[in-house]
Specification:
With 196 residues, the chain is mainly alpha-helical. It is built from 9 helices and no strands.
Length: 196
């Protein structure tokens, strides 16, 4: 169901989106930040060095995945899967990225690691969004949000990230009122966290 939006709602949504961006980059008031304001994992954690290209980066993470599986090292496996997924997603290889994130989700569920399960659901949702499957993206983001609420209660940046990602998917579905609600929750939480 598409919901119409009047000029006042559009202005309110644009104001909330600009405030979200400023909340993420307070020193620069949004300058230099990505306007899409989508949240995955901290890439620095999973992209530990510069690579000469896609093949180099993917080779690095595949080797990490293979070594982790051979040594039954769950943490290294997750780093490899997330890193490979991030590289594939950044280079537009969305089905490959989804495969890595699905493998990460399966491993997290097998280990009962709810934090990494939420990360994987979040990143699968981002791939779904990039693939134009906005309703599916919103569903994955909702699942990530539910896990994050169980893990962190309501005062955590990852919960704000989930609110924002759901809002972006709702906006893409032309559900502007719902998008405004999600973005408003994200902004309010970020402002509380910044004030703390």
């Amino acid at each position: 169901v598409k919901v119409g939006i009047d000029a006042g709602q559009r202005d309110a949504l644009e104001t909330v989106e600009s405030e979200l961006l400023a909340a993420d980059c307070p020193a620069a008031a949004g300058a230099g930040c990505k306007s899409s304001a989508r949240y995955a994992l901290n890439e620095d954690e999973f992209l530990p060095r510069r690579f000469s290209g896609y093949a180099d980066a993917l080779g690095y993470f595949r080797a990490q995945i293979d070594a982790a599986r051979a040594g039954a090292n769950y943490s290294a496996l997750q780093r490899g899967l997330f890193g490979a997924g991030a590289v594939a997603q950044r280079t537009g290889k969305l089905s490959e990225a989804a495969n890595y994130y699905e493998a990460s989700l399966a491993a997290a569920r097998n280990e009962h690691d709810r934090k990494r399960e939420a990360w994987a659901l979040n990143n699968i949702g981002l791939v779904e969004f990039d693939s134009g499957r906005y309703a599916s993206a919103a569903q994955y983001q909702q699942q990530a949000l539910e896990l994050r609420r169980q893990l962190y209660r309501d005062e955590h940046r990852e919960i704000a990230d989930s609110y924002n990602n759901i809002g972006i998917a709702e906006y893409a579905l032309d559900h502007y009122c719902a998008a405004l609600g999600w973005h408003s929750q994200a902004l309010a939480l970020r402002q509380r966290l910044h004030a703390a």
